Amino acid sequence: MISFDNTEIAFKDKSSRELKKTLWLFRLVGNPGLVKTGSYALKTALFLKFPVRWAIKPTVFDHFCGGETIDDCDETIAKLGQSGIQTILDYSAEGKESEEDFEYTKNQILATILKAKNNPHIPYAVFKPSGLARVALLEKVQNREKLTEKEQQEFGRIKQRVETICAKAKETGVPVMIDAEESWIQQIVDEMVEEMKFKYNKEEPLIFGTLQMYRHDRLDYLKDFVKRAREKGVFTAFKLVRGAYMEKERARAKKLGLPSPIYPDKPATDEAFDQATLFCLDNIEDVAVCVGTHNEKSCALAAETMISRSMPADHPFVSFAQLLGMSDHISYNLAAEGFNVCKYVPYGPVKTVVPYLIRRAEENTSVAGQTSRELFLLKKETVRRKVQ
Ligand SMILES: Cc1cc2nc3c(=O)[nH]c(=O)nc-3n(C[C@H](O)[C@H](O)[C@H](O)COP(=O)(O)OP(=O)(O)OC[C@H]3O[C@@H](n4cnc5c(N)ncnc54)[C@H](O)[C@@H]3O)c2cc1C
């Protein structure tokens, strides 16, 4: 049986001072009123171009991010690496709209691929398609709306960016994960990802798509994709997540009078996530999977299934991933048992990363979320260490 309760392992990289600071931070983000007011104040301060760095950098930024540049992340990469945890560098600029920004983001991703090539602690690169493209245009393409000539050229440049990144993945042998987005652009993202998989996954699982298992069509999509990939003789590769945009998805479906793409309740999402994990493990000969979750049960199911099937813990086609600063008890305990574990390590200038940090704080505040568990474990470790 896998257990995530060993707090000595979970927090072994944290000094007692760091432990106390983390406890303080999780108490803060565990306060819904404070997070709500703080998020609002931050958004307003950013809008008014009021300096926020002094408040953000030493607190949430240092906890949830690796640094402001790729090289700033070296310390985090090395620290995680010492505990057998790998890093996925995640350039976290969100809500960008200009061609210059998209080109800049593309170059950042290419730089993370090169960094990964030269660093054994970085097994994958990652990108978010909306970091390379205007969401409104992707939506238009997905809806098969007629594009102007200018828009056609713009879409051509988006596809070229994706192609450039995937070609670099092939050239360097560094696999790339492509994040999943809102359903109103995910179909066009799927189409681009499939094209890249059919081109580059012939010899190894190099291009990973992402499946949001809160969507009730994703298990069928996974099964159908595996069938089609086999017909074409390519490897399947997916990161499995539950999905980050539930409220937005439901609100939009309601507004437009459409059926919601999301399962009606959490148990149904949990069941689909675990079914998808088992399906990938059942087909492991040509399906690579990254189990991207902070859910203890889902991680335990995947790990225990591997053990019961006598699969090596470090099977090259199976990895686990959590976000930096969250669920260390899962990451560190899985790594201690020899599983392939990664942390998404977000980086970017403090101001640019703020939307990501607000989402993290809000996610940690939700009742069903993580904070009470994180707090319980942090307190347990302070008691074990007799930290005052
Ligand atoms: C490494 C990593 C990469 C990620 N990449 C992406 C990505 O590319 N795209 C993306 O969208 N998200 C991504 N996420 C975020 C992810 O989708 C989840 O939002 C987050 O991880 C919380 O889910 P969980 O499985 O960790 O935990 P849990 O706490 O077990 O699950 C919470 C999740 O369950 C689902 N849920 C909650 N309530 C209900 C309900 N009433 N009905 C139906 N479903 C419900 C929601 O998806 C919610 O986020 C990533 C997460 C990680 C760890």
In short:
By secondary structure, the protein is an alpha/beta fold. The chain has a single domain, classed as TIM Barrel.
Indicate the proportion of strand residues: 5-15%
Going by helix content, strand content and strand pairing, the class is: alpha/beta
Q: Judging from the principal axes of the Cα atoms, what is the shape?
A: globular
Number of helical regions: 16
Mean pLDDT: 93
Distance between termini? 33 Å
Q: Determine the fraction of residues in helical runs and give it as a percent range.
A: 55-70%
Annotated CATH topology: TIM Barrel
Oligomer: single chain
Quick one: biggest sheet?
Answer: 8 strands, parallel
Just name the CATH architecture.
Alpha-Beta Barrel
What is the spatial order of strands in the main beta sheet?
Answer: 1-8-7-6-5-4-3-2
Bound molecules: flavin-adenine dinucleotide
List segments where confidence is low: pLDDT < 50 over at least 5 consecutive residues.
Answer: none
